[in-house]
Specification:
Blueprint: H1 6-9, H2 30-42, E1 51-55, H3 61-66, E2 70-74, H4 78-88, E3 93-96, H5 100-105, E4 108-114, H6 122-134, E5 136-147, H7 151-159, H8 178-185, E6 191-198, H9 210-224, E7 231-237
Parallel strand pairs: 1-2, 1-4, 2-3, 4-5
Antiparallel strand pairs: 5-7, 6-7
Length: about 240
């Protein structure tokens, strides 16, 4: 399974992605808005009737602020999980860095995997989906997000240092576009319901105003029917 690059990821302070995060407002930060919009687009799946696993949960932001489900967050980083426990733990919101505890939690109806598969080789992505199937209810949903490596994304990678966004080249493994991601996921033990592009160039206006950026992002989303986006979101049924 996934080999945790401790040296790289331990450079992130606990709660790095969670600082100043709120469920109803976001700072004027491109990086924060990027995550905020992703969580908002998945929020409708995380209803109170579902049991949810957030795989690679980081500091627990999605569970803490965007989930109404009974949720378990798992992450390989002990420090990030400790932060999540301190800030967000409740009877309905649990966190662990012990992989074995996932199987003891029960079966899941919805699994989110945000910002992980780009760090894995294809074989490990397929193995992960296979393992998750064994701990999920029939008909469970998996939501996977990963960067959409189009010309637009390569351009924003070049610009990212000016916006203070971290460089992940050291640990990046797989670079997907919609076609290559669909091809890989169709080899998995899951049905690909859809793959859509989210988080379009509207997010780049966040340094002016996050409220303005959100309005522009939504406008372009409707105008172009998700034909453009820096992120791919795949919905799978298992």
């Amino acid at each position: 399974m996934f080999e945790f690059n401790k040296k790289f990821w331990d450079n992130f302070e606990p709660g790095y992605y969670d600082k100043n995060f709120k469920s109803d407002k976001v700072d004027n930060s491109i990086q924060q808005l990027w995550h905020y919009l992703t969580f908002k687009k998945q929020e409708r799946f995380l209803t109170s009737s579902k049991v949810h696993l957030d795989y690679a949960c980081g500091p627990g932001t999605q569970i803490g602020l965007f989930s109404n489900s009974i949720s378990l967050g798992y992450d390989a980083s002990e420090e990030q999980v400790k932060y999540a426990i301190k800030k967000y733990k409740s009877n309905e919101k649990q966190f662990t860095y012990d992989y074995s505890k996932i199987k003891n939690f029960g079966r899941f109806d919805i699994i989110t995997i945000n910002g992980l598969i780009e760090y894995l080789p294809n074989s490990e992505i397929l193995d992960l989906i296979k393992e998750l199937k064994h701990i999920s209810n029939d008909g469970a949903t998996i939501l996977i997000t990963t960067p959409n490596y189009s010309l637009f994304f390569y351009a924003i990678e070049k610009l990212s240092k000016y916006f203070g966004i971290k460089d992940y080249k050291e640990v990046s493994n797989s670079k997907f576009n919609k076609k290559s991601l669909d091809k890989l996921l169709n080899k998995s033990e899951a049905e690909v319901v859809n793959i859509k592009k989210i988080n379009n160039f509207g997010v780049l206006f966040a340094f002016i105003s996050s409220d303005l950026a959100i309005k522009i992002e939504k406008f372009f989303e409707k105008l172009f029917d998700n034909k453009f986006g820096f992120i791919l979101m795949a919905e799978l049924k298992i």
